[in-house]
Amino acid sequence: MNRSFTTILILACALFSTPPVTAQNLDNPGDYMTAMVKARGDMDSKYMQYMSAAAHGRRAKKVEKLRLEVLDNITNSRYKISDLPIYKGDNSLRQSSIDYIQLCYTVFNEDYKKIVNMEEIAEQSVDEMQAYMLLQQKIDEKLQEGYAALDKVTHTFAAKYNVTLTTEQSPLGAKLEESGKVNTYSSTIYLIFFKCNWEDNQMVKAMNDQKVNDAEQARNALLSYANQGLQALDTVKPFEGDPSLVNACKRALTFYKQAAEKDMPKLTDYYVKKEEFEKLKKDFDANSNRSQADVNAYNKAVKDMNNAVNAFNQTNNKVNNGRNQAVNDWTNSEKEFQDQHIPHYK
Hints:
The protein is mainly α. The protein is 77% helix and 0% strand. The protein has helices at 12-15, 29-39, 41-55, 64-83, 92-119, 126-160, 171-208, 212-233, 244-286, 292-341. It is elongated, with a radius of gyration of 29 Å. 32% of the residues are buried.
């Protein structure tokens, strides 16, 4: 079960409060601030392109070329900022902008490398997936803190030089903000789904290996996750009036609950009966003095075993079909949700 890369990016330059645009004169504090924002414009655009590609089903490893392009744009923006003069001996805004751009460079150059590496192992366990999502959250927090520091300096600079800031959001800023909301929402629901999906996979593996005790442990964990998840989903509100992702997760968890609670015990019971039958058959074959009662008991056991095989196959086919339907439904619903709510950007 693949998980698309959905780290949230909070970018100061796209959401930045800026002074009204006039003919550029860097002696004018408003024009000076506008020049700072424009120097970061290409960086923001490439940010959004990367984020859009990742959000629409492409894994972090698949968008490495875009990540490198973002790094190039960040570097170019840093050069542009560095080329701007210190404003009348006040280097606060220029230095704060350079610091923020350096933070972004570090995030893309180092933190997202970790994301790519962790992506390879995130689906190996619930703990690994939670660690992977925690890293995404920490990256987002780091960017938000960097933005807050730059925003504070910007407002201080504007107040010092009597510049009136406008708070109108740019189209790019609106797309970034919406993407952040979508990713936070969908990641929360995805983790609920993943826990059940992972335990279900563990249960199937144990069943295929005929390890009944391991299968039973996974079944109990799956039932617990399904019950907890359904309870948690009841508290999740629709996203901007759209309940599709929550409903898809509920349908998947309803299947997992049904499978763990009612269907899987029938399948594990088959392996117990199979083990008992094999023991009986071994004793029967080793008995050279069989009575008619022994033969009758063996024939009955064969009939019961055949019935158990038929019941197992019927239940197993039902569970497999239900599993495929649940996973496909979730995958399609998640893709449609992302396509509907995260703006495409090229």
